[in-house]
């Protein structure tokens, strides 16, 4: 049986493809290459260029491949962009996911792993690691667009022979430990990516968004998780569902947070250089602090993270950034 990865040309999707191939799985990818890259998709995967909401293409993919599982990454991921363009986010993340889920049900695909997000929680009422049972109060259209998809999956699983795992990602960073993939989008706005690009001189400077949050140093606190640990959680989710496990929503984070200033200090330390930083206003849609309680993923999926080390995450992100600089120089 094969696994269909949507958004397999993107940052996390491309790592997922490598992890599946490493595990001996057959992999099919669909990506319309709006932000992903053809070169980022492992050549051993069968590739279809197109849109997950193209129901004719989806039928073709399901008829040409023996697919038993879908891992769904395709979507838009930038919180402030979603605040500026909510309808674009609901279209791309919610409406298109609805179409993909309908195609999966029509084709009788039994297993579905969904790339959800910690943004479904918004700012937790208590500043401590969140469990999956706290109230879901997204603060951005991005978070709402993902929560709406979780709700569709829940109701679909109640109505059909269909099991899903929604993995709520915290802040994903770093690159494949074997150097085969990394965060490659020049437009990426995520903190570790931006800080590494600034440290390497690819960017002139960067901003810290907000210094007056109710956190120890006034900057936002996040739970940074290595992308390789994250994709391993997806593999575990797949194995669990194939073995008869039921539907589940689980956090993917390490359970401890770092402030923006702590991350910047770590980048300075790991790279061994200083770089310019300006202090700016708060960014729209940012919760003050969000850290995972990962107990459920550990218990239900048997997920044991291997790369829980901020400096190591930053090292791998810097290595990938340098790889991109060399690649673009040729
Ligand atoms: N930040 C800066 N400067 C930058 C970039 C980011 O100060 O140049 C700050 C942000 O304001 C925020 C923190 O760094 O406080 C982290 O921001 P990111 O953009 O790296 O990530 P987000 O927390 O906004 O969002 C990410 C994912 C979401 C996920 C969320 C969960 O994109 O999918 O983490 O916490 F839901």
Automatic annotation (TrEMBL):
Record's keyword annotation contains Transcription: no
Pfam families referenced in this protein's UniProt entry, alphabetically: Epimerase (PF01370)
Transmembrane segments: none
Catalytic class of the enzyme: isomerase
EC nos: 5.1.3.2
CC cofactor: NAD(+)
Molecular function (Gene Ontology), one example: UDP-glucose 4-epimerase activity
Record Gene3D superfamilies: NAD(P)-binding Rossmann-like Domain (3.40.50.720), UDP-galactose 4-epimerase, domain 1 (3.90.25.10)
Domain NAD-dependent epimerase/dehydratase: 3-252
Pathway membership: Carbohydrate metabolism; galactose metabolism
Similarity remark: Belongs to the NAD(P)-dependent epimerase/dehydratase family.
Protein name: UDP-glucose 4-epimerase
């Amino acid at each position: 049986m094969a696994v269909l990865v949507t958004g397999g040309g993107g940052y996390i999707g491309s790592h997922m493809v490598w992890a599946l191939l490493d595990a001996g799985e057959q992999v099919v990818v669909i990506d319309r290459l709006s932000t992903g890259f053809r070169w980022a998709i492992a050549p051993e995967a069968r590739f279809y260029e197109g849109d997950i909401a193209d129901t004719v293409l989806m039928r073709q993919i399901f008829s040409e491949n023996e697919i038993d599982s879908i891992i769904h990454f395709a979507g838009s991921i930038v919180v402030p962009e979603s605040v500026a363009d909510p309808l674009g986010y609901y279209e791309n993340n919610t409406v298109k996911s609805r179409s993909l889920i309908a195609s999966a049900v029509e084709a009788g695909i039994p297993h579905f792993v969904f790339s959800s997000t910690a943004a479904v929680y918004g700012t937790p009422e208590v500043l401590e690691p969140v469990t999956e049972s706290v109230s879901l109060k997204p603060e951005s259209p991005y978070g709402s667009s993902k929560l709406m998809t979780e709700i569709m999956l829940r109701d679909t699983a109640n109505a059909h022979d269909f099991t899903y795992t929604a993995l709520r990602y915290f802040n994903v960073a770093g690159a494949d430990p074997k150097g085969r993939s990394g965060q490659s989008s020049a437009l990426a706005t995520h903190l570790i990516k931006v800080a590494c690009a600034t440290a390497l001189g690819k960017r002139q400077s960067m901003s810290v968004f907000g210094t007056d949050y109710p956190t120890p140093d006034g900057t936002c606190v996040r739970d940074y998780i290595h992308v390789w640990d994250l994709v391993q959680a997806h593999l575990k989710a797949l194995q669990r569902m194939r073995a008869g496990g039921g539907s589940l929503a689980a956090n993917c984070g390490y359970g401890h947070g770092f402030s923006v200033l702590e991350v910047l200090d770590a980048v300075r330390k790991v790279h061994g250089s200083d770089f310019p930083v300006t202090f700016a206003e708060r960014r729209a849609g940012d919760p003050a602090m969000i850290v995972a309680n990962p107990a459920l993923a550990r218990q239900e999926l048997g997920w044991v993270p291997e790369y829980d080390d901020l400096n190591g995450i930053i090292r791998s992100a810097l290595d990938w950034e340098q790889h991109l600089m060399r690649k673009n120089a040729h």
